Amino acid sequence: MEVLMIFAIGILFTVSTYLILTKSLLRVVLGVLILSHGAHLLFLTLSGLKTGAPPLLGEEAGSYTDPLPQALVLTAIVIGFGITAFMLVLAYRTYKVHETDNFDELRGSDDD
Amino acid sequence: MKNTPIQLHVVTRIVAFIILIFSIFLFFAGHNNPGGGFIGGLMTASALVLLYLSFDLKTIKRVLPFDYAYVIGAGLLLATLTGVAGMFFGFPYLTQFFEYFQLPILGETELTTALPFDLGIYLVVVGFTLLVILTVAEDDS
Amino acid sequence: MTNLLILPILIPLLAGVILIFFKNSKMIQRVISVIASAAMTGISGYLIYAVYNNGIQTIALGDWQAPFGIVLVADLLSVSLVFLAGILGLVTLFFAYQTFSAEREANYFHTFYLFLMVGVNGSFMTGDLFNLFVFFEVMLISSFILISMGSQRYQLQESLKYVIINTVSSMFFIAAIAYIYGVTGTLNMADLSVKIAQLYEQENSGILTVIALTFLFVFGTKSAIFPLYFWLPHSYFAPPAAIAALFGGLLTKVGVYTVMRMYTLIFNNDPIVFQILLLFGGLTMFIGVLGAVAQFDFKRILSVHIVSQVGYMIMGIGIGTPLAIAGTFYFLAHNIIVKSGLFFFAGITEKITGTTHLKKMSGLLKTHPYVGWLFFITAISLAGLPPLSGFFGKFALVIAGFEAGHYFVIAVSLATGVLTLFSMMKIFMTSFWGEEKLPDPSAKERKVGKLILPVLPLVALTVILGVAAEPFFLFSLEMGEQLTDPSYYVESVLEE
Fold it and tell me: Where are its TM segments located (chain A) (predicted)?
């Protein structure tokens, strides 16, 4: 299972790298989004995948999943959610002001 | 809005409330079971977004006259102050307490200080999601 | 276990939240955020005193003891930086009141300024790696908003790039945390220090170097070291002077702080990382200063200079002896004060002349002599001339470098110092010295007395840190000892 997950994460990272390197604004934002999914999955996988036991640590629990990665990944997802929302709004504003979604045209300044 | 989509309105009125009730269930399920403030908040926000989608902005603004920035503020304040409360008794910040009480109707119930904290998160998530969506939606120019 | 440690984080958080409700009242906003910043600074001042006398203080949040819960740790380094952040915050507020339009100030500026402080102070104080990530994000999101506030053309395009680059590096932060958690099973920094030291003694410790370098990538992006600095000059040029000063003085320094913490506490016996730090430190400072020499814009020169000075700090961490760490801290403190001071001066000249381009103004010394000479003091302090604060940090770094035998990188740092002096003098000679030439004649009459007042404490501080360097330097030396021996930190966190 871990090996499969590692491949999935690798694919996510690859796709996001491709998207981030494109010139279209929206694709770059999507690339960052996919990168965050890859990173979260990486966290869950590296801290050990277990099936069949709840993440509760009773005194006599025979088997349990480590609750920490789940809590941390939830936090990271929430943060990613906020950043993505902000980034989309910012991209939208930039698109409105510059009337382009091409990163090639989003460079230089007025005084150069 | 002359072409009122009747089917959408009828379905929305039913479905939105089902989602709302489910979101409240999720909110209270949190802490020891899957659920909690964040998930409940997102669910509530999705119900409200459904309302905004099927009716128009102005109608819903009349029904729900909140400034969502204040909703976020209220949520953050509630969550922060819950953490502060323990400090007055000499416990470190964010220490949580819980106790089991016998309540009428509900029977034995666990009351925790995590609940107001979660309520704060719930408010923040609802406020934030709607604020972002409405900011983009209202920008017609 | 004292709740005092949480206050530098909690006060700005509460104040920021309360200010959401007073969006429309300028007076309440100003009063509350000044009081909050002052309280934060006062408490961190007291914490310095307490830590200096009683040793490292910790608090376990939510009463979950380390290494399972999140701890906040106040050692000399973190509380001093919180204190400096507080001072800089106060100065920035007063400067912003003079320069900001009412519209900009109404737009939740105070709330996000205070949230930025929450993130900065939290990053300094936390003793948990994941919590560090969270505070980093709090800081970054606030900085995203502050940098894009105003929505001018240039600002939007540069802040979008800033946001994307920082978010990508944050995702690598999660990946690095995932690696380190997978290898050690803990995220508490003190616990990590112990466990990683044990792992280095085993045979296959190559994975640790990989993790150390992944972290270096993440913090290198935030603190703008050599191959990863390209975003900084543009992004810091975009916002108004007050915000640029806050960012230039503080945000990259948070990145430097984390590099310092990670590589003195956790990866302190990695064989490769310190070589790489030295190499990148040297490259960062030299390439940064070359960029500054080439520029002809006040704010751009200062922005590119940030890169160069980060190089010095990275070099100091790379040398790694107690004296070098002490020098690094001294330089860091000096740089927070002086760099933001210079950004304020850029703001003042912009207010006078309406431009920051050097070729469009000259002879300001005749019309505004105070501005000119105060700028001169700050500028030569940045270049590292005695008896000002910049000299002692560099001096300690040079001596430490010679003791450790890193002659080449020291030579580079001295050459960088000369070029720094050159680029600072370029600003002074072209815009302040020389024939009086102003873009519009009314600029001559423009009074900027109110704008200079907030900057005075910074100029005073750089003089004090230079003239009366001895007590401050002894303090830094003690800090150097505390940082280079992780056992102090580990014992005070894990003992409880």
Answer: 6-21, 28-49, 69-92
pLDDT tier for residue C138 given thresholds of 50, 70 and 90: very high
Q: Mean of the per-residue pLDDT values for chain C? A: 88
Contacting chains of B (3 CB pairs or more, <8 Å) are A, C
Question: Which pLDDT value is given to residue A112?
Answer: 46
Distance from CA of B54 to the nearest CA of C (A): 30
A47 touches chain C (CB under 8 A): yes
More confident residue, C164 or B93: C164
From the CA of C219, how many Å to the nearest CA of chain A?
17
Q: What is the 3 state secondary structure string of C120-172? A: HHHHHHECEHHHHHHHHHHHHHHHHHHHHCCCCHHHHHHHHHHHHHHHHHHHH
Q: Do the Cβ atoms of C21 and B92 come within 8 Å? A: no
Angle between helix C322-353 and C449-467 (nearest 10): 160
- Cβ C391 vs Cβ C471: under 8 Å: no
Domain that holds residue A83: 2-49+66-105
Q: How far apart are the first and last CA of chain A?
A: 54
Report how many domains make up chain A: 1
Is A111 within the bounds of a domain?
no
Q: Is the peptide bond before C486 cis (omega within 30 degrees of 0)?
A: no
ipTM: 0.93
pTM of whole model > 0.90? yes
Q: What CATH number is given to the structural domain containing A19? A: 1.10.287.3510
C87 to chain A, closest Cα gap in Å: 29
